[in-house]
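tool_call predict_complex ligand=uridine-5'-diphosphate
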Amino acid sequence: MTTKPAVLVTGGAGFIGSHTCKALFENGYTPVAFDNLTTGHADAVRYGPLVKGDVRDADAVQAALQAHGAQAVLHFAARAYVGESVRMPLAYHDNNVGGMIGLLQGCAAAGVERVVLSSSCATYGVPATLPIREDCPQNPINPYGYTKLVCERMLAEQAAATGLRYAALRYFNAAGADPSGALGERHDPETHLIPLALQAAFGTGPALSVFGTDYPTEDGTCIRDYIHVADLARAHVLALDHLLRGGASLCVNLGTGQGVSVRMIIRAIEAMTGQPLPVVYGPRRAGDPPSLVADPAQAHALLGFRTSQSDITTILRDAAPWFRPVRQAG
Ligand code: UDP
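tool_result ok
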């Protein structure tokens, strides 16, 4: 393993952040998790030190960067629920936009000029064409997506004004769990489709509510592009390698290019368990676009990234142990 620098991972105790810390560690980096632990789990920080702090606090960011000699930041810390953002927009602006300001101020004060941002397909809103390319106009339809778009713009503006270089990674739907069982998805409250559907399947949660069956899609339910969190984590390592070897700033989609509907997830879980999944059909959820599917070509061209474990069967297999009555892994 080659020696690589320490990097600050904001939100390193969260779902995607903790998986990325593992991938960074396995690739020779020292991941320093920086997390206020409001939604993250201290016991998910296993691959480097944990600094308890808030990204809105520029002084705390600067101090953490300097204390650990970090040369770059991977910025995951954010509120990330579409539905909640519609109900609590100010919390999203405060945390996500305020967090980006505090982070960049802390970076500037510490002289750190490489940033990888968790951005989102939610920045595209309802795309004019599918699959979505990076040059698709970004017109978000919910506060969450809007705050991520502001973060991207802030990075672009700061990069134009200073020596900053960045990678904005527009995730599609992160799902699954570390294949070894070391890390998983633990949100409280849980709002995401795959965890809720698995809980319904295993009797550890109520019947799954399907949010809308009248979308203009083949089976009437929303279509998303689900990407395994271990694939996402690997993409972050590639983006960081790219920036640290002098690569230019970039914005890329991280997805598979395959659209999967809510009903397809239900059928895949039924095939896995051999049981019918308890389901109730309800109205649409505010803020949900009908269909979001990535064109993954740019991430491959610029970073050499391709998903390798994001087929829905693998995602469900790796996620499942975390939602069984007695967790069998980790
Ligand atoms: N969804 C659903 N029932 C749920 C949770 C989600 O039907 O209990 C749908 C939701 O409307 C969306 C898709 O599943 O079309 C994925 O939602 P999720 O919250 O997992 O991710 P998002 O796309 O909001 O980031």
